[in-house]
């Protein structure tokens, strides 16, 4: 994270005695990235965070990965997936994946178990519904349009707050954060960045739970393990540092516009290992007198492009069957662009009321069974039709 936070009770100096009311020491835990060479936070527990009483292998639903063959654009209708009767973590339907990231979708109506992703960071985007993200750092209330960045190995759970919770999740094989070009050498957001520290939300108070023999599901590089902890991990009385879960609303992203059509990098919001995440938000569009506001046909030879349509009207896709909750995949090796007639229709339009999340990956994405089950098989041929 680009800035420091302090929450709850702390001793004045790090790595010094900090005692509980009964005189025993609080248990200090340093959580850090890249060994001891990157961001970290220091947490103070009532109980030892190492005290486990059981461990057993866990097998989640197995989704295979199938190459995008024959190579073609794809349209996945996430709202066709089964709704409810599951939780926002173990109930994720895997849609697209490569060795750098996995893109999943969940429709949940119940709290998840306690969970830790020991492989990489997660970016959870809330399409609809409200939830509370509870973690060892405290809790975050989130709602439609919120991105939540959950760093690697943060122990947490997701609790829907009434009704269905719809989330798109990008699980990384590394770390997700603001693009480096938005930050100073010391981590402050620069003036040209489309969002800043004021737009970010982090936990503001400790979350304390007194329970014993608590199960925690851990996803790691060799599979999954279900641990039983002697005490509930939510026993942190205070922490400080630059590593913690944080939320940012897509509605706080300030779009960069121009006289002619601006390329996708101006919409970039986060970067991860070999992928980027972008936000397309309502905005004034191209104001040159001869401008064509919709995108030109383009062939990104180094990336697969994924767009999740999460609100408004996406003018360039009219007539393609794209709807709320749709995901389009335009792979490297395929030239893609607006639907037939979109360029002419867009001339003279001054404002786009659209909301979409884009994930561009620099290695090809495979398809998982849930994506194939809710795919629109006619999408690839829609450019050959006249509207």
Automatic annotation (TrEMBL):
Species of the source: Planosporangium flavigriseum
Annotated Homogentisate 1,2-dioxygenase N-terminal domain residues: 113-248
Keywords annotated in UniProt: Dioxygenase, Iron, Metal-binding, Oxidoreductase
PANTHER family: HOMOGENTISATE 1,2-DIOXYGENASE
Residues that bind homogentisate: 314, 336
Gene Ontology molecular function, alphabetical: homogentisate 1,2-dioxygenase activity; metal ion binding
GO annotation terms (biological process): L-phenylalanine catabolic process; tyrosine metabolic process
Family, as annotated: Belongs to the homogentisate dioxygenase family.
Sequence ranges assigned to domain Homogentisate 1,2-dioxygenase C-terminal in this UniProt record: 275-383
Listed Gene3D superfamilies: Jelly Rolls (2.60.120.10)
GO cellular component, one term: cytoplasm
Pfam annotation, one family: HgmA_C
Positions that bind Fe cation: 298, 304, 336
InterPro entries: HgmA_C, HgmA_N, Homogentis_dOase, RmlC-like_jellyroll, RmlC_Cupin_sf
Active site (UniProt): 261
Name of the molecule in the record: Homogentisate 1,2-dioxygenase
Required cofactor names: Fe cation
């Amino acid at each position: 994270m680009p800035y420091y936070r302090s929450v709850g009770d702390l001793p004045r100096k790090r790595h010094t005695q900090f005692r509980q009311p009964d005189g025993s020491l609080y248990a200090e835990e340093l959580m850090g990235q890249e060994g001891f060479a990157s961001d970290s936070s220091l947490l103070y527990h009532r109980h030892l965070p190492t005290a486990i009483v059981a461990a057993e292998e866990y097998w989640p639903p197995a989704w295979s990965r199938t190459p995008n063959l024959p190579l073609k654009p794809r349209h996945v209708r996430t709202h066709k997936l089964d709704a409810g009767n599951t939780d926002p973590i173990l109930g994720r339907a895997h849609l697209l994946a490569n060795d750098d990231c996995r893109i999943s979708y969940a429709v949940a109506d119940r709290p998840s178990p306690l969970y830790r992703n020991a492989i990489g960071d997660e970016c959870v985007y809330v399409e609809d519904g409200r939830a509370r993200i509870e973690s060892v750092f405290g809790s975050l209330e989130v709602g439609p349009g919120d991105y939540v960045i959950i760093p690697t190995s943060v122990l947490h759970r997701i609790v829907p707050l009434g009704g269905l919770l719809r989330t798109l999740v990008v699980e990384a094989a590394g770390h997700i954060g603001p693009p480096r070009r938005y930050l100073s050498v010391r981590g402050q957001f620069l003036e040209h960045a489309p969002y800043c520290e004021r737009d970010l939300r982090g936990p503001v108070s400790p979350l304390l739970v007194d329970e014993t023999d608590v199960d925690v599901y851990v996803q790691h590089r060799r599979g999954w393990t279900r641990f039983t902890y002697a005490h509930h991990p939510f026993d942190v009385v205070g922490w400080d540092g630059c590593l913690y879960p944080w939320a940012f609303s897509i509605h706080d992203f300030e779009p960069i516009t121009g006289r002619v059509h601006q390329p996708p990098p101006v919409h970039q919001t986060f970067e991860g290992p070999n992928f980027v995440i972008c936000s397309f938000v309502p905005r004034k569009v191209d104001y040159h007198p001869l401008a064509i506001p919709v995108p030109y046909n383009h062939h990104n030879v180094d990336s697969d492009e994924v767009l999740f349509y999460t609100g408004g009207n996406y003018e360039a896709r009219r007539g393609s069957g794209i709807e709320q909750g749709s995901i389009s995949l335009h792979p490297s090796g395929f030239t893609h662009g607006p639907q037939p007639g979109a360029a002419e229709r867009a001339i003279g339009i001054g404002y786009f009321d659209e909301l979409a999340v884009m994930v561009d990956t620099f290695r090809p994405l495979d398809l998982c069974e849930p994506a194939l089950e809710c795919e629109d098989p006619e999408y690839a041929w829609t450019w050959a039709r006249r509207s």
